[in-house]
């Protein structure tokens, strides 16, 4: 995720973070209360990309990307259970701040939104993960929603809608001419206790559990936790392991983006395009099931041991993963003509043009990342489901990115033109770690005593 233009800066805030006490090599720093306040003030004029915010029961941590790619974490110990919130200068921090308060009881001062988000008043204790859980008040307070300007119709969806996704309540404020004036999520209707269950597990068991946090992102979650565990235990990651993880992650990304494009197409009334993408996704998942024993690629990513062994990426396994990656590339190539015909159906582009326009400033404030970010500097239209299904094909031996794909100018659909170099994976994605250097951890596992993960989580 490499930002363009103003996304790439962040020198002032990053330098301020680095003045703190280093606690995890060169990427995590502890700030005192005054230093944290200075950081918040600096972020008001510094576009350092914000990624996430969480707590561990003792500290609050904020994750940034320095230069768009270098992990940088600022940590602060809440004084009296309170800390200065980041949502005033980074609106994307609003939901994590509400989540931290519901689970740990740490209050974000000067926050944009202080309403409960996950706690509906029916838990056995308030602040269940905090150092001193509190009693439950009864009866529970009714849910609070933001007032919607201009009246209009309120449409509620969920939490029990028959789907297989996480139960949640989506509240839409509908305006005139089929427009959505406001949208708000309310979660907390189900809880699996993943973070609490991770603590005390040995590394393989923790990685196995992380792979079940989200069905469509098993490789992503397991890879993130593996990197964190390896960084915490000073384990070197072999070249084969790194490359195998990249290939597995990109195969997973293929299926995910095909699913997103299919849903976008179906919402736009392009049922033929949706059917083609769904068929292609099913073909990819069926291939993974036959070759790896699991359609969702679960439990293929394993942490490396301190000696550099026992991880994903031995020669035989690497060859098998590369072979499947080639077959996936062939599957995508073989269906491009059919997908192109459906995409070019008259009237389809007109129906999606102008939908979901997101300006540069709003995108920066909300922390929008992913495939849509490169177009933000030009204020172009963003549609859900940017398909990068074959972005990685040029890296696989014997494969090349098809010349029938390029970045869409106004919508999610790939366009029939020559593929630019930006479709190829950046060199840093597959570059092996330098000798004697281990990658920075981006998941949360900073202490692994005697091979067991402590204070770890994935999100």
TrEMBL record:
Location of region: Disordered: 416-459
Bias-annotated ranges (Low complexity): 416-428
Domain of life of the organism encoding this protein: Bacteria
Q: What is the protein name for this chain?
A: Uncharacterized protein
Instruction: State the organism of origin.
Output: Gluconacetobacter diazotrophicus (strain ATCC 49037 / DSM 5601 / CCUG 37298 / CIP 103539 / LMG 7603 / PAl5)
């Amino acid at each position: 995720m490499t930002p363009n233009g103003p996304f790439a800066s962040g020198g002032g805030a990053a330098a301020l973070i680095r003045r703190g006490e280093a606690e995890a090599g060169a990427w995590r720093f502890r700030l005192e209360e005054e230093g944290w306040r200075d950081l918040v003030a600096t972020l008001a004029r510094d576009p350092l990309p914000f990624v996430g915010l969480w707590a561990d029961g003792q500290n609050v941590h904020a994750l940034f990307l320095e230069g768009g790619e270098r992990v940088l974490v600022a940590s602060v110990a809440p004084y009296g259970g309170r800390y200065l919130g980041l949502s005033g200068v980074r609106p994307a921090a609003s939901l994590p701040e509400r989540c931290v308060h519901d689970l740990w009881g740490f209050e974000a001062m000067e926050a944009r939104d202080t309403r409960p988000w996950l706690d509906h008043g029916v838990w056995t204790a308030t602040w269940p993960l905090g150092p001193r859980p509190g009693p439950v008040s009864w009866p529970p307070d009714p849910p609070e929603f933001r007032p919607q300007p201009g009246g209009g119709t309120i449409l509620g969806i969920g939490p029990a809608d028959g789907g297989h996704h996480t139960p949640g309540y989506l509240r839409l404020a509908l305006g005139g001419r089929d427009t959505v004036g406001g949208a708000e999520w309310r979660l907390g209707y189900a809880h699996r206790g993943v973070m609490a269950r991770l603590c005390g597990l040995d590394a393989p068991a923790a990685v196995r559990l992380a792979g079940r946090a989200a069905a469509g992102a098993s490789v992503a979650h397991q890879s993130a936790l593996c990197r964190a565990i390896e960084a915490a235990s000073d384990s070197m990651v072999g070249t084969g392991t790194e490359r195998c993880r990249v290939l597995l992650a990109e195969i997973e990304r293929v299926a995910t983006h095909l699913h997103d494009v299919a849903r976008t197409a179906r919402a736009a009334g392009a049922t033929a395009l949706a059917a083609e993408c769904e068929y292609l996704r099913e073909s990819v998942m069926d291939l993974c099931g036959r070759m790896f024993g699991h359609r969702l690629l679960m439990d293929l990513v394993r942490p490396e041991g301190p000696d550099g062994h026992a991880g994903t990426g031995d020669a035989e396994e690497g060859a098998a993963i590369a072979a499947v990656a080639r077959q996936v590339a062939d599957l995508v190539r073989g269906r491009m003509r059919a997908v192109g015909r459906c995409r070019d159906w008259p009237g389809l582009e007109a129906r999606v043009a102008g939908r979901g326009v997101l300006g540069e400033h709003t995108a920066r404030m909300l922390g929008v990342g992913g495939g849509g970010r490169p177009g933000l500097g030009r204020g172009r239209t963003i549609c859900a489901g940017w398909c990068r299904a074959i972005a990685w094909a040029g890296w696989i031996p014997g494969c090349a990115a098809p010349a029938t794909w390029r970045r869409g100018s106004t919508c999610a659909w790939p366009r029939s033109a020559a593929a630019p170099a930006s479709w190829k994976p950046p060199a840093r994605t597959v570059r092996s770690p330098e000798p004697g250097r281990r990658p920075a951890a981006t998941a949360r596992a900073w202490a692994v005593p005697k091979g067991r993960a402590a204070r770890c989580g994935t999100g």
